[in-house]
Amino acid sequence: MIKVFKIGGNVIENPGMLDSFCRDFALVEGDKVLIHGGGVIASELQKQLGQTPVKIEGRRVTDLDALKAVTMCYSGLCNKTLVATLQKYGCNALGLSGCDGNVIRASKRAPKTLEDGVTVVDYGFVGDVAAESVNATALKAFLELGMTPVLTAINHDGNGQLLNTNADTVAASVASALGAQLVCCFELDGVLLDRNDPSSVVPVIDSASFAKMKADGVVADGMIPKIENCLKAIAEGASSAVIKNALKVSDETSGTKIVL
Description:
The protein is an alpha/beta fold. Helix content is about 35%, strand content about 20%.
């Protein structure tokens, strides 16, 4: 069974955590794909370039200057740091953006009406992807060659335009296209019932319990799209999904399992 792992900027920006993750990831047996974000680092780079990062409902507004910054960050520093560290531990990683090998195409997001029902936001050069956006044949070919694809959140529209996409959505789409297990990794042990108690991990979340947890404010902010993407991935072909600690990738019993 193929496994699709996703890690975010909080892991990548911490050298010790990143090294530990790469060491353990390299030991995971079988075919695997890694998708990464890097939003924390991208925001810092934007500030250094004199830009003001703008996020609305957790999504980055990406004008042309922001696109240049996130492309440099995701497909440059973050991707190559990951690939180099994985090579250090004997994992033959291959860094890719969506335009490389045409592995993922994205469609530019249309202006969106926010949850207030009034405000309309143009997110700029932001792309949306789905399972059918993924070139599963190409990814499987790389796996058959003994390579581990490491995908950034930068994709393309097929007409020469790069687009910034959400890494959680990319991971869900790739897992669906490959019929793989989706493993979303971050700095906690799973979804917490009490955000102030790191041991209060919820073992299983389904659609009904997720709706209640969201309404009660137990899950909020960036955790909402993580769970939504896990549910979507399973509904569209992924074999299973789990949210877990990036330092426990080899522990099959840890984390929060997401089920329909």
